[in-house]
Amino acid sequence: MSRADAHADALSVHEAPTADTLLATRDLVIDIPERADSSPLHLTVNPGQCWGILGPNGAGKSTLLHTLARLRPPRAGGIELTGQPLGSLSRPDLARRLGLVFQNHHDGFPATVLETALIGRHPYLRPWDIETREDVDAARAALATVDLDGMEGRQVDTLSGGERQRLALATVLTQDPQVLLLDEPTSQLDLHHQVSVLQRVREIAGGERRAAVMALHDVNLAARFCDHLLLMFPDGGACWGPTRSMLVPAALERLYNQALSVGEVDGHPVFLPRVE
Amino acid sequence: MTRSFLLAAGVLLPASLLSLVVALAWGSVAIPLGELPRVLTGEASALHATLITELRLPRALAAFAAGGLLGVAGALMQVLLRNPLADPYVLGLSGGASVGALLAMLAGLSMFSVSAAAFAGAMLSTLIVFGLAHGTGSWTATRLLLTGVVVAAGWGALISFLLAVSPTAELPGMLYWLMGDVSHARHPGPAWGVLVFVVLAAMPLGRTLNVLARGPMQAAALGVSVRPVEWSIYIAASLITATAVTQVGAVGFVGLIVPHMLRLVFGNDQRVILPASALAGGILLTLADTLARTIIAPEQLPVGVITAMLGVPVFLFLLYRSR
After folding, report:
1. Which CATH number belongs to the domain containing residue A174 in this structure?
2. How would DSSP label each residue in B185-201?
3. For residues B275 and B260, what is the distance between their CA atoms, to the nearest angstrom?
4. For the segment A98-143, what is each residue's pLDDT rounded down to a tens digit?
5. How many domains is chain A partitioned into structurally?
6. Which CATH architecture has domain B2-321?
7. Within an 8 Å CB–CB cutoff, is residue B323 touching chain A?
8. Residue B303 CB: number of other CB atoms within 10 A?
């Protein structure tokens, strides 16, 4: 057993998948070029759960999310979505069950805010179908939940970074998948919108048939809004389990290679970088 | 979407008809509009009837089909490469076609063989660019674009070489071909067939293309099988460009500015832009060809000169007016 595996097993809490499990990985090793050794992941994401992925730059958070969305192949192991192997689903079928918000957004051509949110309905429409009033209403409702109502006619390239990020979230809300994957959804948001976006994700994932998995950079937001955490170490090791059992200061210090001070605010643990 | 579709249809369909009527009526011999219906009923004078049915009608239809094909090819290439500056020729298609056509002219072959050689050259260029861009690494829009631009530069050098070594008597015909020339087009049937087929086939793909314009990763996450769709677009755009080139030579500018102008007016929904590009491209080339054969009649100008002269100011005006 490698060093990375040994470390992962020390903290990890393994849950066996059940009939309800939305997303399960079996011996999943993500494919990061030039990295020889990663510990296999046995994640079990059940309905109602909100997972946070924490790790330093380059640890493989985005690669993992892209692998879970079948945008790149894993090096080894398998992924199951609602009990079916990910590879056995057609792309549109997959898109109806699982949605991904990317970290970066490329807008090649001019488009309005409403048009951009409306593409979330694409997996539900057959080739000749035209978006119906219900589709437009769904897009408008999604825009309203991220505070973009009233901006439907704006050109996307006139939005600020944070507004563009909230629009990406609105697109995935319009897509309405069971499993929501989010790649640093709050990286460009102001304090209020960080909290309101994560609350919204929490609400959606807290329902009976949905779950969310998001890569985050802020330990304290993750500690506050996620019920499960996956820590991805720079050496390829990983450990995961309920948030409470993962917030071990020594593990977090090793994760970021950064000394931390731990405190308590409003009954929640708070981690701040310790600067000498 | 429905509104801009109806608006585009309401403007462009009558304009298409009008452009064809103008192409029939104008020329070195002007034919009064009242005379046009009489050609159908057989009451027109023999000269007018011959002028229209044997010269102007096939030529106008060929120009319209070729313009439509170039417009659609441009719209497809711009989505494929996610670059508003892409045009049907950006991947070296016109260069390959031109080299093929010039070689056939040098060999003294018939106009039909010149067209066939142009088609073969265009497809050869497509295969070269696709094979090289595919290469060993990943297949990205930027890589494809760069490969195409460099291959096009190579063809450009070959064209200059062929022109330099050609006998002087051959040069005017060659230059006309390079700038676009509808005067040899007599059989617009196949081009119309391709145009109608491509527009009908691309319409249901329109929303998929809208999603693809947001980038391949985003498209895949929304359920698009990106690679097969990209290949289909590439092959379709190459085939229809080659078809257009065999009809009218290397007419520039239509594929670049027509989809772009339409986006400025009707927005960027491919379900509107693709059929609208077919109509607007057809209108532009039909009117341009009519001018090309009337301005200095009985002499004719290369139609590519007129498309650029008409297209540049209209395009700049729309760009200036847009937000």
Report:
1. 3.40.50.300
2. ----HHHHHHHHHHHHH
3. 13
4. 999 998 887 778 888 999 999 999 999 888 888 889 999 999 999 9
5. 1
6. Orthogonal Bundle (1.10)
7. yes
8. 30
Q: Which domain holds residue A102?
A: 3-273
Q: Which of A62, A51, A50 is nearest to A187 (CA)?
A: A62
- The label of the residue with tokens 């462009």 reads B12
What's the average pLDDT block by block, 10 residues per block, for chain A (276 residues)?
A: 49 78 91 82 92 92 93 91 91 93 81 91 87 91 90 89 91 93 91 90 87 93 93 90 90 91 88 87
Chain A residues with CB inside 8 Å of B215's CB?
A: 106, 108
Give which of A63, A102, A116, A122 to mutate to test B binding, by max B Cβ within 10 Å. A122
Report the b/e string of B249-267 with b at 16+ CB within 10 A. bbbbbbbbbbbbbbbbbbb
Classify the phi-psi angles of A44: left when phi > 0, otherwise alpha if psi is within -120 to 50, otherwise beta. beta
Greatest alpha-carbon span in chain B: 66
- Inter-residue contact B124 to B92 (CB < 8 Å): no
- Cβ–Cβ gap A108/B213 under 8 Å: yes
B196, amino acid identity: V
Domain ranges of chain B: 2-321
How far is Cα of residue A3 from the mean position of the Cα atoms in its chain?
27
ipTM over 0.90: no
Cβ-in-10-Å burial (0-12, 13-18, 19+) of B133 comes to buried
Q: How many residues does chain A have?
A: 276
Per-residue model confidence as pLDDT tens digits over A8-23: 556 777 778 887 889 9
The parts of chain B modelled with pLDDT lower than 50 are none
pTM for the model:
0.86
The dihedral sign for the CA sequence A107, A109, A111, A116:
negative
